[in-house]
Amino acid sequence: MKSELDALMQARNLDAFIVFGNAEHNPPMTYLTGGGHVSHATLIKKRGEEAALFFGDMERDEAAKSGLKLIPYSKYDMNALIKKSKGNGLLAAAMRCQLMLEDMGVTSGRVGVYGTYDLSAIFGMLSRLKKLMPALKFVGEAREDSIFMRAMETKDEAEVARIRRMGKVTTDVVGKVADFLTSCDVRDDEVLLNVDSSALTVGDVHSKIRLWVAEHGAELPSGFIFSIGRDAGVPHSVGNLTDLMKLGQTIVFDIYPAEAGGGYYYDFTRTWSLGYATPEAQALFDQVKELYDHLNDNFDLNVPFKHYQQMACEYFEGKGHQTPLHTNAPVEGYVHSLGHGVGLNIHERPFSGLMNGDDQRLAPGVVVTSEPGLYYPEKGMGFRIEDTLWVRPDGRMEILAEYPYDFVLPMKKWVSKK
Amino acid sequence: MKSELDALMQARNLDAFIVFGNAEHNPPMTYLTGGGHVSHATLIKKRGEEAALFFGDMERDEAAKSGLKLIPYSKYDMNALIKKSKGNGLLAAAMRCQLMLEDMGVTSGRVGVYGTYDLSAIFGMLSRLKKLMPALKFVGEAREDSIFMRAMETKDEAEVARIRRMGKVTTDVVGKVADFLTSCDVRDDEVLLNVDSSALTVGDVHSKIRLWVAEHGAELPSGFIFSIGRDAGVPHSVGNLTDLMKLGQTIVFDIYPAEAGGGYYYDFTRTWSLGYATPEAQALFDQVKELYDHLNDNFDLNVPFKHYQQMACEYFEGKGHQTPLHTNAPVEGYVHSLGHGVGLNIHERPFSGLMNGDDQRLAPGVVVTSEPGLYYPEKGMGFRIEDTLWVRPDGRMEILAEYPYDFVLPMKKWVSKK
Fold first, then answer.
1. Fewer C-beta within 10 Å: chain A N or C terminus?
2. Rg (CA), chain B
3. Is A120 close to B126, i.e. CB distance below 8 A?
């Protein structure tokens, strides 16, 4: 949680940190400012002291929403710095950053560097700043183990409420999609039809998904997945927009809406087969669902997350599938890890990969996905079930948005002629 | 244009470059890959040679859409590298990056670093990579002057077509908003009403804007502006969601939709007053419109863009307003610069600030905004007119999406009782 940041800084021997970039789609900045449309901002915090947000004057109203100590960039005469640097933009930026750090009392020690932003500009600026402030050492951290990823790993109730709200958006949209698909007319060749009798494509469904998410004022990363047949068998294929929607094929629908501006996410997957399922598909789905339920029955407080990845691999290998346990980067079978934390990052701590440390646990306050799956692109099928779960302070695991797991969705206006 | 990259690398004495991050919301990566949902990718290009895209195996279908030479990360045994690095994630990442660079024949010289991505992870990784490959010098560039910003400055016809398509989305949505607002019922106190007779808020209008943009499958950055009254007088205030929509107040509507996944933008602003305008507002609007037209009449091929900022400042100072020409960071009057390039970045070269160089010109192929404005937050009013224009190869300036400039929008069901 945010309150851990000072202790994390101490543990990493960081005297201060600096976060660059916009307050949107920039998790460390969003975490500290709460969002708002503040572009090209800078946030500096000395250990044990209040953070300050440096911002462009035109965005003062948005900056004020952060509740942080505010310092406008106009305090620093950029035109004079550009002259002094003889027009060298990176040097001028470094000179301004030096003034900002000095204003915050950061003149020596180790300074962590964070933010999602233009790598080139910041790398170039820091190269020059190091020469201007030789008593500072700028430090980067591994993405999955930074002080922010550590602090963000456990959520407070307000954060869980925001994730839960996105869960409600998700299941509302998924319900609308299911209702829409099962209401379609069906051609003799089992292709679904639009109301104008044209063939329904994956692209048509993508448009409706985007629209229904937008109705909630939420944001839908364009990498969301609604794919059918072979594409459903490739875990991260978003779906071929021209594929026709047909009965009896596996559909993987993986959707992770976020609060507008890059806030908290929810992550969710269902696998469907419209009208009927082939026996082979039904059997593979049943394996995924059996494992999914088995995991839910076994999740336990403070157990390392990778323990359940091991469990999933062993289960699937017992059914004859390849898994990462004994195959390097499999492309068939169970090809990914069981889950990940969800918050301001769609993928964050704790991670469940077999190589991860025992410290990535189902600790109270973490919010994780459980998403076992099976993939057979050559057979034209794929399967995944995913919910987002909160490890409550009382140790119970709670699915943050309930939704049925049905594989075969009966068509309202179609009857099998077989 | 993209074809200039090798020459730009040569001019900057870059032997290679490396781009980090996702293929979405990451202009250099999108520029080179064409988009597609490829997360945590790396792209390496040696000067004069073909670029290669390194990608996670699960995203092979998305990576293939780029048409680039493809190398899956699975070629490198990350588990072995993690062991070799004794679990130091940043060192393991640096060791993998070394193998990737060596595979591309990049073993000495200057390497440009680009991309919008996690600063901490890349800064930390590069610190270690420098020690592993001391013959390489990693180089950052100023954001507004990088080889990418230079290459992107002039667009080919295919890029202009994509921007024009976003222009059509924009004007379609703006037309719907105008039609919706002018169709509303109006209360005696001049507040607009929803169909359920509740007062119409700025937030209600924001929701409709988001929905109508989503209908086109486009993306709307959450910093879009639809604001009324005082907020319209603060150029980058997105609008207070609880403000009531009223007649006779200035509305600034600044909208910049992009292709889904962070592609090409269009940038557009209109200022409206519903039902009627106060004489003071009408007079200020007329000044902005007169200057806007005057600029259009005077734009000329290859003239430095800042020349027109100078023209705008002189015009507004002649009318008694503060401008950046003689006031440092004004908060009233004309408070920003005239325009900017538009492409994969909402703000890119050429820039029009008075401090910018003469090389930022209206060269053939650039796409720029022209957006004069006046801001008086204390008077509760603001004004801006903005279109996106293409400098055609024949030297003509073309507005890429036509839309009327009317300030007062007559209400369909309201008649003044005055």
1. C
2. 25
3. no
Which among A213, A222, A336 has CB closest to B37? A222
- Kindly determine whether residue B238 and residue A37, on different chains, have CB atoms separated by under 8 Å: yes
pLDDT in tens, A275-320: 999 999 999 999 999 999 999 999 999 999 999 999 999 999 999 9
Strands A41-46 and A348-351 come out as unpaired
Please answer whether residues A271 and A253 qualify as being in contact, where contact means their C-beta atoms are separated by less than 8 angstroms. yes
Torsion sign (Cα): B214, B217, B220, B226: negative
User: Using alpha carbons only, what angle is made at residue B309 by residues B235 and A24, rounded to the nearest 5 degrees?
Assistant: 35
Cα A306–Cα A145–Cα A121 angle in degrees, nearest 5: 140
Cβ distance A127 to B143 less than 8 Å, yes or no, reads: no
> Looking at the partner chain, which of A62, A119, A223 has a beta carbon nearest the beta carbon of B122?
A119
Pairwise CA distance, residues B374 & B334, whole Å = 5
Q: Coil, strand, or helix at residue B122?
A: helix
Alpha helices (runs of H) in A319-348, residue ranges in sequence order: none
Q: Where does B124-202 show beta strands of DSSP type E?
A: 136-139, 185-186, 192-193
Position A151 pLDDT exceeds 90: yes
The answer, yes or no, to whether residue B418 has pLDDT greater than 70, is no
Size of interface A-B (CB pairs under 8 A): 195
Domains defined for chain B, CATH in brackets: 2-150 (3.40.350.10), 153-409 (3.90.230.10)
Query: Does the predicted TM-score (pTM) go above 0.90?
Result: no
- The β-bridge relationship of strands B397-399 and B387-391 is antiparallel
Q: What is the pLDDT of residues A329-360, one digit of tens each?
A: 888 999 999 999 999 999 999 999 998 889 99
Which tokens is A105 given? 């009392």
Contact (CB, 8 A) for A46 and A139: no
What's the rounded Cα separation, in Å, for the pair B202 and A62?
A: 16
Strand stretches in B102-256, DSSP E: 109-114, 116-118, 136-139, 185-186, 192-193, 218-219, 225-228, 250-255
**For residue A192, how far is the Cα from the chain centroid?**
32
Place of tokens 């250099």: B28
Closest CA to A32 of A76, A61, A59, A69: A69
Tell me how far apart the alpha carbons of residues A166 and A261 are, in angstroms, rounded to a whole number.
Answer: 13
Residues 6+ apart with CB under 8 A from B267: B254, B256, B342, B346, B369, B371, B386, B388
User: Which residues of B are less than 8 Å from A140 in CB distance?
Assistant: 90, 119-127
Q: Are A210 and A176 in contact (CB under 8 A)?
A: no
> Which two structure tokens, joined as six digits, stand for A53?
């947000």
Tell me, what's the ipTM? 0.87
Task: Give the Cα separation of B323 and B318 in Å (integer).
Answer: 10
User: Which of B214, B219, B336 lies nearest to residue A211, judging by beta carbons?
Assistant: B214
Structure tokens belonging to residue A47: 């250990």
Render pLDDT for B61-98 as a digit per residue (tens, 0 to 9): 888 989 999 999 999 998 899 999 998 999 999 999 99
Type and span of the H or E element at B126: helix B119-132
| Upper half-sphere CA count for residue A142 (Cβ side, 13 Å) | 15
The number of beta carbons lying within 10 Å of the beta carbon of residue B249 is 22
Residue B292 · residue B384 · CB < 8 Å: no
Instruction: Output A156-159 pairs: Cβ under 8 A, ≥24 positions apart.
Output: A156/A1, A156/A2, A156/A365, A159/A264, A159/A343, A159/A367
Buried b vs exposed e over A263-293: b needs ≥16 C-beta within 10 Å?
Answer: bbbbbbbbbbbbbbbeeebeebbebbbebbe
Phi, psi of A332 (to 5 degrees): -130, 155
Q: Inter-chain contact B143–A121, Cβ cutoff 8 Å?
A: yes
Is B119 close to A122, i.e. CB distance below 8 A?
yes
Question: What percentage of chain A carries pLDDT values higher than 90?
Answer: 83
